[in-house]
Structure formats: structure tokens, C-alpha cells
Specification:
By secondary structure, this protein is an alpha+beta fold. It is 44% helix and 19% strand. Belongs to the peptidase M1 family.
């Protein structure tokens, strides 16, 4: 009896697997229209499929859709709509068939309508198996189809989808129609839409592939630093992987309030607006790693796709590892080995509680991505880069546009090497934990890592025993993490004792070394003030924020001076510096009292749904610090409860749970319920009455 739920869960998958053996869907062409006012999508759809052998029912995944005018081979036929699937049981024949129908849906997920009017963006995120919420398709990644999507929308917007743009035509005075067509098959979860007011730039790779890069029109000045090294990464991958980019065109577009860092939709990556940066922001948080990761997926995940979650590491491990190889190409061996070392530290720490191995569909993201990358590094180091690349090339060519499992990949390793892949699989893929000794053995081949570990081992030594090493290292060209570690070890010392080392470090041209000084120097005498104030001019929004916080807190008599200097700072995508400035301006006694109301209103305005969640959350945190009893602020905590971005929703839930421990806040939120929209009301009631 206890097995019944398990069998029930397997039953639909068994049916779909059986369908794959008996029916081959070839192409999907859909003409789509979007109703922004009601957040609906409608489409006219044509599927061409081949029945290979007798089958009772053909299934197409379709969540909460309505269907009309359904025909198979031009004949109207009966069908069933389960609310989860479109089920066909009449009208098809052995051999080629054509299915046509119209549909409508109001998706609760996967298709998102963000903002309004000029600020409207519409985008999809079909990760894994969710495209069936907006397009009748296949949740099983093993069913690959050639997609062609034609989308009608407001002519003043840009519409992006998968494949090559075949045609843009006027529908009427207000709308245009964009026709996109894939040339090769792909899994349904990789289908996409992105609509917005975008600016565009194009480059051409060494092999002739067009790289289309998009930004919101207001961010048009940020192309250079947002997309820095994009062409270099693309050219490196084609050379390193040894297989030409398979899709003909590649485009990238950032969208607001995206759920993740990026998503590798075939030919058309969507990524987070947080990675749109200017020259200074590039030094703090840039798109390079996500850019390389999503591009690598165009081979590992899109060209070849894992058969099931058990083999998911073949996608995320490869994309993570090749992104690191791209960074190695850009920034050198020391950078690459430092990244691998930091990953190893995270994996070692996580292994204390994370006991699910890599080849398990329930493995954590850390395991799939980062342990997967380490497993590949172990392979590459043991079979040699030349043999590894040869195996990867053969693997991609052999299974192009198909599905793969771990055995398929390891068979190609076996073909080029006598390395014991059976033992490798047992230790790195099927066993939990992290093999620290083997990983460190590889890392310590790198001189920088060996030196870093030597410095790390000095942590408990008195300064007299390590002073000379610290001075020599700080004056050297050593990679910044070693210098950062030295500054951390000096942090607890009295200021006069560590001053000579601080002065050396501050002469560095490396932003991260100077930032480490600012992080570790919370207290210092007034004589050092002119030196510390130089951090306010560093080309880092993070360093500026650290320095402004320290100076405002430690030297209250100079607050007006620092506020005047930072008055026009904005900062990163979350407006970190502007929101910090407003908070300080409001908290500084006697600073521009005539403007305080305006500053408070500006800060309160950033909580509005007109802004991205990162800005709203930052503003809420600061407003609650300034005045936790402002009912306007408390009211604005409720709306995020229903936000599609789970990180923002969780922030609001946690904050309200914390507040309602006090009776006055619980009473306020309870009295607020009748004035709320239904979805907000339901979400808040769950917190008030768990």
C-alpha cells in the first residue's frame, strides 16, 4: 500500500515515455497574440506529427487552457481537455498527421507581464517543464520539436523569440507581426518570448554568427560594459569545444525582475536586469560568468539534453565548468584556480548536511552546478585536456539534437583514455560528500594557491613571525585573495600596529585590495581620515557604500560634507547608493530640514510596484529602519507577498512574521485585510492565521 503514491507519480511519465516510442512530433507553428490588460495569451497552432505504431491516446501538455476549432488532417474530431493535458484519441492515422487548433490561457506562472505602458515587459521562463503554461507543448525534455512562433504586438515594442527572424510585417496601424523560425529541434522548456522597448547592437563572431545584444532603451549607454567580452567568449567556446555553434544566431536580452541569473533558451538567452552595468558597476557585479554559462548551455543542454533529472549535471556541470574555462581565458590561471578553490570550500562545508549525490534528480543546485564542474575538472586533469576535448567533441557530434545520459558521456572518455571511469562515477557522481584531498592535490599544482594556503596557515601566528612575509606579499604582484587574507588576519590588531601594512595595501591599483582595506578598517584615528576618504573616489559602488557608511558613522561632525559629496550618487541596479544617501540625509540632524519631507517621499516612492523588486526591497529595509511605525510603509509590505519573484515574496513574509509578534502590528495588518485585493488578502491571512 505504501508504494501506491510512488506508482501514481510514475504513471503519467510512463505514458509519456510510451508515447515517445509511438509518436514523433516534428514541428510546431503557432501564431500568438497577447492581451496585456488581462494577462492572457491566445494562439492558432499547427502540429505535424508522425504516428509510428498503434496508440490509443496522444497527449500534449497544456495547463489551464481552453481549446476550439480542433482538427486532425482537416477533420473536426473529439478531444478531451483535462486541465493539464490535451488528449487526442480520434482522427489520426499511422504516418504523417497535421493537428490544428486555437487556444487561450491566463497563465499563473511562466509567462510574466511586468510593468505598464511604456515600461511594459513580457517574458517567459520555462525552466524544466513549464512552457505548457503558455504554449501547448511537452513537459518531457525527450520530445524535441522544430518551433516556429509568429507573434503580433504593439509596433512600438520589440518582440524576441527562438530562431531566426524571418519577417516583420504590419498587421494594422497599431501592430506588427514578428515571425521567428527554428531550423533544428529542441525541447519545449527552451521556447521563449521577450517583449519590451529594447535598444539593439550586433556583432559578428569569428565564424560569422550574428550576436544580437539588447538592452532597455533607457540603458542604451551601458552596452559596452554589460556585454563586455561577449564576442571573445563565443569565439573561445567554438575553439575550445571544437563544435561550431549549432543554431545560426545568438541573442541576449535582460528583463526586469527575472527569476534567476539567466536562462539558456535556444538562440535567445534571457538574463537579469541586475547585470546591466556601467563602467564602475562592472567592477562590482558583471555579466561575464552568467553570460558564459548560458552560452555554454547552447551546446550542453540545448544541442544535447539530459534524458532525466538524474543526469542533470551533464547540463549544469558542463555550463558551470565551461564558464570557468572562459574566465580562465580572460583572466588567467590564478583567477581560475581561485574560483575552483572557493567552490571546493563551499562544497566541503555543504557536504556536512547535503548528503544527496550528483547523480540524483533531488540533488541541490550547488551539487548539480558546482560539484558537477569539479567532477569535470577531475576528469580533465586525469585524462589530459587534449583527450578531454576530443571526447567532448565526439560526444556533442554523436548526440546532436538528441538526449543523453551519463553513460553516453563516459563512454567517450573511455574511447580516448584508460582512466577508470567506473571508479570516477562511484566516487564523484554516486557518492555524497566532496573529495577534498583529491581536489586540493590538483589545486596545489598552482603556485598562487600554494602560496595562499601558506598564508592561510599563518592565521594563528604572532605578527612578528609573519611580518616580513606580509610586507613582501603586499608589495608583490600576487593575486588579490592572498592580500585580502593578510588584511583579514590584521583586522583585530591595534591600528598603529597594522598601519604600515594598510599603507602598502592602499597603494595598490587593484580595486579589490583597496576594498579589503575598507572592509577590515572599521575604526581608525582622525589622522588617518584623509587617507580613508580616498575610498569615496574608488571606481566601485561597493567600496563607495562601505566608505560612506564608515565615515558617516564614525565622524558625525563631517556628515554634511559626506552627504554633499555623495548627493548625486545612484549606484547599482538596486539604487544602493541613492537609497543609502536618502536614509542618511533623513537620519542626519539639522541636514536640510526643508527638504526632509521630499527625501522621505522619494524613498517611499521606491517601494512602489513601478520599480524592480531589488529597489523596492532595499527601500523597504531602510524605511523600516527610519520609521517602523509608518503605516504607509507597513501597507507596502503586503503587495510583495504575491510577487512572482520568490526571493522578494519571502522577504515580505519573513518581515511581516517578525512584526506581528507584537500585538500592535498584528492588529494593524488584521484591520488592513478588508481593503486588500483578494490575492493579497489570502496571502496575509495565511500569515496572521497560520
Amino acid at each position: 500500500m505504501r508504494r501506491l503514491p510512488f506508482l501514481f507519480l510514475l504513471f503519467p511519465y510512463f505514458l509519456f515515455s510510451q508515447q515517445l516510442q509511438k509518436v514523433d512530433f516534428k514541428t510546431l507553428n503557432a501564431t500568438l497574440s497577447l492581451d496585456t490588460a488581462n494577462k492572457k495569451i491566445a494562439g492558432k497552432t499547427t502540429y505535424v506529427f508522425e504516428v509510428l505504431s498503434t496508440i490509443d491516446t496522444i497527449r500534449i501538455d497544456a495547463k489551464n487552457m481552453s481549446f476550439s476549432n480542433l482538427k486532425i488532417n482537416n477533420n473536426t474530431v473529439e478531444f478531451k481537455n483535462s486541465g493539464k493535458e490535451l488528449l487526442l484519441f480520434k482522427g489520426f492515422k499511422k504516418g504523417k498527421n497535421t493537428l490544428t487548433f486555437e487556444y487561450e490561457a491566463t497563465p499563473k506562472q511562466t509567462l510574466y507581464f511586468i510593468g505598464e505602458k511604456e515600461n511594459l515587459q513580457i517574458w517567459t521562463q520555462g525552466q524544466g517543464k513549464y512552457t505548457s503554461h503558455w504554449l501547448p507543448s511537452f513537459d518531457d525534455v525527450n520530445e524535441k520539436v522544430i518551433f516556429g512562433l509568429t507573434i503580433s504586438f504593439d509596433k512600438d515594442f520589440t518582440v524576441l523569440s527562438n530562431g531566426k527572424l524571418k519577417k516583420v510585417a504590419d498587421v494594422n496601424q497599431a501592430q506588427k507581426q514578428w515571425e521567428y523560425q527554428m531550423e533544428k529541434p529542441m525541447s519545449s522548456y527552451l521556447a521563449m518570448l521577450a517583449i519590451g522597448k529594447f535598444a539593439k547592437q550586433t556583432e559578428t563572431t569569428a565564424s560569422g554568427t550574428p550576436l544580437e545584444m539588447y538592452l532597455s532603451q533607457e540603458d542604451a549607454s551601458k552596452f559596452e560594459y554589460t556585454y563586455k567580452y561577449s564576442k571573445t567568449i563565443f569565439d573561445f567556446f567554438e575553439s575550445e569545444i571544437g563544435v561550431k555553434y549549432p543554431w545560426g544566431i545568438y541573442r541576449q536580452v535582460p528583463v526586469k525582475d527575472f527569476l534567476y541569473g539567466g536562462m539558456e533558451n535556444t538562440t535567445s538567452t534571457i538574463f537579469s536586469q541586475d547585470y546591466v552595468v556601467d563602467e564602475i558597476g562592472f567592477n562590482d557585479r558583471n555579466y561575464i560568468n552568467v553570460n558564459a554559462h548560458e552560452l555554454a548551455h547552447q551546446w550542453f543542454g540545448d544541442l544535447i539534453t539530459a534524458t532525466s533529472g538524474k543526469h542533470h549535471w551533464l547540463q549544469e556541470g558542463f555550463a558551470t565548468y565551461y564558464a570557468l574555462l572562459a574566465e580562465k581565458e580572460l583572466f588567467g590561471e590564478d583567477h581560475f584556480n581561485w574560483e575552483m578553490y572557493e567552490i571546493a570550500e563551499r562544497l566541503q562545508q555543504a557536504s556536512k548536511t547535503d548528503t544527496i549525490p550528483l547523480m540524483n534528480e533531488k540533488a541541490s543546485a550547488l551539487t548539480f552546478y558546482q560539484k558537477g564542474a569539479w567532477a569535470l575538472h577531475i576528469l580533465r586533469e586525469n585524462v589530459g585536456a587534449k583527450n578531454f576535448n576530443k571526447a567532448v567533441k565526439k560526444y556533442l557530434e554523436k548526440y546532436a539534437f538528441k538526449n543523453v545520459n551519463t553513460a553516453d558521456f563516459l563512454a567517450e572518455i573511455n574511447a580516448v583514455s584508460k582512466y577508470d571511469t567506473k571508479n570516477f562515477q562511484e566516487i564523484w557522481l554516486e557518492k555524497s560528500g566532496f573529495e577534498v584531498t583529491e581536489a586540493l592535490g590538483i589545486l596545489q599544482k598552482n603556485k598562487f594557491i600554494k602560496n595562499y594556503l601558506d598564508v592561510l596557515s599563518l592565521a594563528e601566528k604572532p605578527l612578528a613571525e609573519k611580518q616580513q612575509i606580509f610586507e613582501e606579499t603586499l608589495k608583490s604582484e600576487a593575486y588579490y585573495p592572498i592580500k585580502e587574507e593578510i588584511l583579514f588576519q590584521l583586522q583585530s590588531l591595534e591600528f598603529p600596529e597594522k598601519l604600515p601594512f594598510i599603507q602598502i595595501a592602499m597603494q595598490s591599483k587593484d580595486i579589490k585590495v583597496r576594498q579589503a582595506v575598507a572592509k577590515t578598517l572599521n575604526k581608525f584615528p582622525a589622522e588617518f581620515l584623509p587617507d580613508f576618504e580616498t575610498f569615496l573616489d574608488d571606481n566601485s559602488y561597493v567600496t563607495k557604500e562601505i566608505a560612506l557608511n564608515v565615515l558617516w558613522s564614525q565622524f558625525p561632525d563631517n556628515r554634511t560634507k559626506y552627504l554633499d559629496k555623495s548627493r548625486n550618487w545612484i549606484g547599482m541596479n538596486d539604487k544602493n547608493l541613492r537609497i543609502l544617501w536618502l536614509t542618511m540625509a533623513l537620519a542626519t540632524k539639522d541636514f536640510e530640514p526643508e527638504n526632509k519631507l521630499g527625501y522621505y517621499d522619494e524613498l517611499l516612492g521606491y517601494v512602489s510596484p513601478n520599480y524592480e523588486s531589488s529597489i523596492r526591497q532595499n527601500a523597504l529595509i531602510n524605511l523600516l529602519y527610519i520609521n517602523p511605525n509608518d503605516t504607509n510603509v507597513l501597507r507596502m509590505l503586503v503587495n510583495p507577498l504575491t510577487h512572482h519573484k520568490w526571493q522578494f515574496s519571502k522577504f515580505a513574509r519573513d518581515k511581516i512574521r517578525e512584526l506581528i509578534k507584537k500585538e500592535k502590528y498584528k492588529l494593524f495588518f488584521s484591520e488592513l485585510l478588508p481593503s486588500l485585493q483578494e490575492n493579497e488578502k489570502v496571502a496575509l491571512e495565511r500569515l496572521l492565521n497560520p
